[in-house]
Amino acid sequence: MRTMNIKINTIKVSALFLGLAALWSCSSDFIERPPEDRYVDANFFKTDDQVLASTAPLYARTWFGYTDKASFPIGDGRAGNYRGGWQNYVRNVTEATEPELRATWSAFFNTVAHCNAVVRNIEAYAGPEVTEGIRNHGLAEARFMRAMAYMYLVRLWGPVPIIEDNTKSLTSTNIRTNTIASVYQFIVRDFEFAAANLPPTPLQTGRITSWSAKGMLAKTYLFMASYHSSGGNRDQDYLDLAKDYAEDVCKNSGLALLEDYWQLFRSQNDNNEEALVSLQWVWNSSYGGGNPLPSQFAYSSDITGFDDGWGGWQGATSDLVKYYIANQRDSIRRKATLFFDNDYYNYMHMRKFDDNGNATFVPLQFEAIQNRSQAPIKKYMPGPPIDNDGKGARQSTDNNTYLLRLADVYLDYVEAILGNNGSTTDADALLYFNAIRERAGMPEVNSITEASLLQEKRIEFAMEHHYWYELLKWYYRDPEAMKAYVGDQDRGDPQVSYVPNTNPKQWTATYPNVEKYPLTDQKLYLPLPAADAAAMPSLTMDPIDYEF
């Protein structure tokens, strides 16, 4: 493991990015044609810089509707890690009329629409001054991000419509959803194109590479292996493909884990070499261009420095806290993920007011507040501007959001090696599995089981909006076991207490209000947004295979 110097020439600070991002306005209609007249026309794609500018909004702004409020409830709430302000996701009773549901659906389809516009316009309008390498780079970025959007769509809604050209879909009154198998195949094709046409090192800091695409191919094939399982066994051909791609990234990319786990979530370490795919937020751009997570999920305005930070009632479930109480040695990851009473952070500050109402910032020591979450979210909470080189504003911070980390590829490689075996002692599997644990200060293991791998993924990526998808993969091959696991999770509000004068610090917890919520087959996928289903009734018909 090693750290890396972060380059200054980054997509984040590109003037073209800021200008273009300001032009982009997200639509609430998933079939609406992108605003081509604003920039994606015959007068725009004349230089390499203009082509690169056209893909820049795909690194943040088009994803805003998902990231803003829904990412935690969907990715961690449905999985039993998070509880808080959007409890229907936690209770497995999401309604089709919920605004965050449609915002998420629209964000992904806005991303798809922007990608489609970029592909269409590069192919139609790229001038002779655009070099072949940049032309292919722009196409590859657009197809990669389209595949990323569809990875979320297919795992959240199941059958969804594949749209390659919004100018054609705009006039359609009979859009149908496509089968899950078709959507995964579409995703693979886009990631394969990206892997073949992106460079191995980022063109600008923050942009994706061929290793990003190969990492996502490994992940996609793992989902396909489970989706096409038989008798509870993953499809071996897809497992082999996942293993090949993950092994290539692990052994040949030259990338390494960041040395300290907690450093992953500091803005100063954005675009470290573990970051294979990240959303690139810009704190001082127009609304929708900065990271909104701290405003919604920070436990107090005292750790944002502004009059936001509305997450005091949001935090971890009893089910997740039980792991940390039973495994207090896993404190490095826990402290970077959740606040516990009496936690102290010398790199993060909180606002304090004196008797005259004057504010100062002091190193943060968390004190649990009665009738608030006793385990609020720490991960992705960067602190006030003083902790971020002066960057940050109300409802807008600069810290990136990970969509794929190298650690994820490590554990996907382990999963591909484990395959359909009950356990493995494979040398490569142990090497990469234990690399994750070593960084966390956890002891090495000499055997890996499916259960221990699932737990490692849960804890490594807790509060990164990740765990639901691991559970879905389990459902694909063993739905009854997955539903039983989810139904037995205690999603109540834990009460965590510091044990005074302990060194290292220790905590106890009680779980006074047990909350368990069954998951049915009918509730596995999110409902189609009511407005879109009403406007396009054909979306509720049986899915059809996509014609490639």
Helices and strands in order:
Elements: H1 15-23, H2 48-55, H3 64-67, H4 71-77, E1 82-83, H5 87-90, H6 99-125, H7 132-157, H8 166-169, H9 180-197, H10 210-227, H11 236-252, E2 275-279, H12 293-297, E3 315-316, H13 318-326, H14 331-337, E4 344-353, E5 359-365, E6 401-405, H15 406-418, E7 423-424, H16 427-439, E8 448-449, H17 450-460, H18 467-477, H19 479-487, E9 495-499, E10 506-510, H20 530-535
Antiparallel strand pairs: 1-3, 2-6, 4-5, 7-8, 9-10
Helix pairs in contact: 2-7, 6-7, 7-9, 9-10, 10-11, 10-15, 10-18, 11-15, 15-16, 15-17, 18-19
Write up what this structure looks like.
- This protein has helices at 15-23, 48-55, 64-67, 71-77, 87-90, 99-125, 132-157, 166-169, 180-197, 210-227, 236-252, 293-297, 318-326, 331-337, 406-418, 427-439, 450-460, 467-477, 479-487, 530-535; strands at 82-83, 275-279, 315-316, 344-353, 359-365, 401-405, 423-424, 448-449, 495-499, 506-510.
- It has a two-stranded antiparallel sheet with strand order 1-3.
- α2 runs parallel beside α7, α7 (132-157) packs antiparallel against α9 (180-197) and α9 runs antiparallel to α10.
- The protein has a domain at 48-198 and 525-540: Serine Threonine Protein Phosphatase 5, Tetratricopeptide repeat.
- It is mainly alpha-helical and 548 residues long.
